Amino acid sequence: MAYKYLVIVESPAKAKTIEKYLGRNYKVVASLGHIRDLPKSRMGIDFENNYEPDYITIRGKGPVIKDLKKHAKKAEKVFLAADPDREGEAIAWHLSFILKLDNEEKNRVVFNEITKDAVRNALKTPRHLNEDLVHSQQARRVLDRIVGYQISPLLWKKVKRGLSAGRVQSVALKIICDREKEIKNFNPEEYWSIEAQFKKEKKVFEANFYGLNNKKTKLPDNEAVEKVMNKIDQSGDFDVNKVIKKERKRNPYAPFTTSSLQQEAAGKLNFRTRKTMMVAQQLYEGISLGKGGTTGLITYMRTDSTRLSETAKQEANEVIVSEYGAEYAATNPKKQKNIESAQDAHEAIRPTSAMRKPEDVQKNLSKDQFKLYQLIWSRFIASQMKPAIYDTVRVDIEQNGVLFRANGSQIKFKGYQMAYAETKKDKDNILPDLSEGDKIKLESIEPNQHYTQPPARYSEATLIKTLEENGVGRPSTYAPTLETIQRRYYVTLQSKRFEPTELGTIVNTIIGDFFPNIVDVSFTADMEKDLDAVEEGKKEWVEVIDQFYQPFKEEVTIAEKELEEVEIEDEPAGFDCEKCGSPMVIKMGRYGKFYACSNFPDCRNTKAIVKKIGVTCPTCKKGEVVERKSKKNRIFYGCENYPECEFTSWDKPIGRDCPKCEHYLVEKKTKKQAQVVCSNCDYKEESQK
What we know:
Blueprint: E1 5-9, H1 12-21, E2 26-30, E3 36-37, E4 45-46, E5 52-53, E6 56-57, H2 62-74, E7 77-80, H3 86-98, H4 116-124, H5 131-158, H6 169-184, E8 190-200, E9 203-212, E10 215-216, H7 222-231, E11 237-250, H8 258-269, H9 273-285, E12 287-288, E13 294-295, H10 310-323, H11 358-361, H12 367-383, E14 388-399, E15 402-413, E16 439-451, H13 460-469, H14 475-487, E17 491-494, E18 497-500, H15 502-514, H16 521-535, H17 541-562, E19 571-576, E20 583-589, E21 592-597, E22 606-608, E23 611-616, E24 624-629, E25 635-639, E26 648-649, E27 652-657, E28 664-669, E29 674-678, E30 684-686
Parallel strand pairs: 1-2, 1-7
Antiparallel strand pairs: 3-6, 4-5, 8-9, 8-16, 9-10, 9-15, 11-14, 11-16, 12-13, 14-15, 17-18, 19-20, 20-21, 21-22, 23-24, 24-25, 25-26, 27-28, 28-29, 29-30
Helix pairs in contact: 3-5, 5-16, 5-17, 6-14, 6-15, 8-13, 9-12
């Protein structure tokens, strides 16, 4: 079919969606991401010539480039429609070079959402390639290459092969290791609380010890508690000496940015960061809505801006009025403040049309797509609603100078919470009607001993929040960073919390000792600001790289001379090799620890280290069931006698048979509880959380 215009995007899914919006004069094809990059086998940077990158065609992209050239030759004009960010600008720049397009011609089109109007309007207003954006992306690529290709070989040489260092990943690893040190060095401190139950008429309510003689008082030990308890006449009256009633507002959350979406999807949907971004990409690139055709359901999902267009706000207002009532629509929604480093070129993540309610498109979406779309839609709508209003009461209760305090709250107006439920639901705590001067009776009183707890390890969500708060990395870097530190076996996820491995601790120590700037949070954040200044045309990219490289080069030279080889000693396994009789040892491998024969290389016997769960295999009745990990690091259960016995289960067998059909029972975990169910029939029983 003849066409006049060629539009090049990154992905086939995006190409398919966009082609449906354009007439027969347009051909839409995909570059399948980047077509040129720095070579993998060498540094690829000319240090003597202003850090000039030596780009080469990515292996395997030859046929793609050939196809693109063939299509471009037939077209009167080529439009470069890669994603609207630094990465997309760089892809468009490389395409322009490969296809020998005229740089004086306006052929770059960008759209924040893949809808018919957005795509057609973008094609009406093409612009020149933004060289500042390209230079900013190029600076990041060169910087990451310098760090990775100069520190990684040192780690290979001095520690073990297969290790790597990176500008953002090394900071993330340091943050995790620092938290682990805090936990190990933590000394719990004792403290006490006194909980009392008071009664007015038939209503019993709770109050907690606050202080003595109107001053807040800590209870560090049992002795302090005894002093308080001795002052109290448990059969006497207590005086209500202060009642403070207030109205409290809770403002709606801002619409999603990349990091807040990743955090909330983790908390509410139990999505890993990578999964959130993968599903968001699908919603952005386009979903087939049957008669409605294929359309993008959300705006671009890599953004750190909370800005919304006036059209989007107007649509949201119409939906709020029709769904919840005019009293819920904010007349002047609070303007959300962007984070300091936010690039405001994009909007926040929102539905492309507020009118497209989640339930209307549910039948066209997968389960995960629906959950994420519902989350994005609800948050966006809520951001344009009135605050929630609570009536709060604070009551001070006293006897003999001993002060107890009770707090009550009751929701008066749900506001934005009609659309977007809190992660932790607020429960009304309604106190009886109390007035100053009332006399009330003590129902019960109980002192409780506590100990301070160490800080929690980071989850994916809290680590992303910490990186963002410190200005380290950008929205597009978080998911790959977390993936890399796990793939390198620097950290493991235990109960959804990051724990550094021995290898990760060694690597972090080496980088911290010899390359302190690389793991310095402030230095990395300042570097991000410099790179943003390049994007804004305020700094030259070569100058930014040079300022970093000159001192870094000296650090590399010192490290090469002074860094001693780190020997990770093997641990005795406690049993002998069944092949040669030599003692088995525990070795550290690229993917964790494993059993190996100490007689290597003469004997190459190795075994995976598996965790037995104390249950006999329900299939062969001989071996024990062990915990294993899939290639994607997901835990599953199998027989220790594999491959002779091929029993496997994603759910944990519990060692009992079903009373209904006699198949084995398993423990199936949900977010709220663990439930015992049959592996074969519908039998189930409740289990403890």
